[in-house]
Structures are given as structure tokens and as C-alpha cells.
Amino acid sequence: MDKTEWYLEYEIQKNRPGLLGDISSLLGMLSINIVTINGVDEGRRGLLILAKDHHQIQRLESILETMDTIKVIKLREPKLRDRLAVRHGRYIQRDADDKKTFRFARDELGLLVDFMAELYKQEGHKLIGIRGMPRVGKTESIVAASVCANKRWLFVSSTLLKQTIRNQLIEDEYNENNLFILDGIVSTRRANERHWQLVREIMRLPAVKVVEHPDIFVQNTEYTLDDFDYIIELRSHPGEEITYEVVNQNQLFSDSDFGGFDF
User: Fold this and answer.
1) pLDDT tens, 133-159?
2) Which architecture characterizes domain 92-260 according to CATH?
3) How far is CA 44 from CA 18, 225, 229, in A?
């Protein structure tokens, strides 16, 4: 019988030498294999484990509940956030009210790239928005994640190297395995109707689309934030406010300004 992967997370109540060894020995006695283990938060450890049936997990849970040295936080089939937490040693911050919004700081770019790459690998339509101030690493993270996911990326609108506004694609670019990148400021402020026709065509493709500045993107279009599957916020440091004051004041940038900023 094939073994099933589970995620176990526990909080240390009484830290003492040999605690991890006790947990490992218990798993071994129950014939449960450890795949990966790491600290996932202060005072917490996360483990990916393999069990042959649900009965093993029930026995494990009942025994762990009798231990006064730890408190079980999660014991479930692993979600993407669980796998990344074990891999990187920290949890992705998720908005308490809006479950599709995830927050990252600049020192978590590795975790962000890994997270986006896993999203890119999923099949079908997926619309991802990413917020952040200039030069925080948004575009670079998007491109790096596409490399990790082995996806070809296409800039539909962008300011990475120079201002880009596409009005058409060539035939082989209409590919559901491609990653389509749009800059909400450029598309909203600088594009013509031909560009928007192309955007609508791309939105109908069963492919991944990433929109920088989704709040600006939806202001003057038929799309809303509800259309987005994920919203990612990237800050230079936790607590930084993401604002669009200059854009909201209708102070449009010149081409040279666009070329000098990673919006």
C-alpha cells in the first residue's frame, strides 16, 4: 500500500534535551517515516511524515495528546503553505480577513519566489496580483519564479528594462504554458484599445496571469479584485505602507521615469 504524506506541527511546551529524539522514536515505533523536519516559527516545529493508513495517524495523535512537553497545532494532509514552511523554516503570512492575500518582506524573496513558482505549476487559469512600492523586487520575483517553474514569461505591459505595451502576440505565444505579465499602471494609463483587446484575449486563456499593481488595474477596467485568485503584497520591511499617491493625483510619468523605476 502506498504511503500518504501528512503534516505535523507542534509547539514546544517544555523544552528539554532529547525531545526531538522522543518524537522521532515514537514515529519509528508506529512505522511512520519522517520526510522533512524544520522549525517553522518560534517554539514550533513542522514535520512532513509518511503513514500507510489513517489509523496510524489516529494512534499518533492520541499519544501526542498525552505528552505535556508539546502541544499539537496541526496534523493534516499538507497544504502548500505547510510544505513551504518546512522547506524555508518560516510560515507565509496570510491576511486574517482576506484569505487570498499573502504578505512578504524583502528579506523573504526566496520564500516568495518558491511560493509563486508552485502557483505557476498549477494547471488552468490563475490570476495573481502583486502589490508593492517601487524597487522592492516585484518584477524580478515574478520572473525568477517563472524560471523555477520552467515557464516562458511574456511581458504584455512592463517597465522592467523599457516601457513595454504589447498590442498583439505571435501565434506560438498564445500558449497556456506561458506566463503573462502585466503592469497595471502602464496598461491603465498608457495603453490603447488594441492593447485592451489583447488583454481580454489573454484573460480568457487557461493560463497563469500576473498583474503588478492590481488596484490600479481594476480602477478603469471591467475586472475587479474578486477576479483575482491570489493577491501578494511585497514590502521592503514589515509594516511599510503601500500607496499610489502619485498615480492617484494623475501625475503621469515620462518614458524616462518609467525606465528608471521597477513599478
Assistant:
1) 988 999 999 999 999 999 999 999 988
2) 3-Layer(aba) Sandwich (3.40)
3) 15, 34, 29
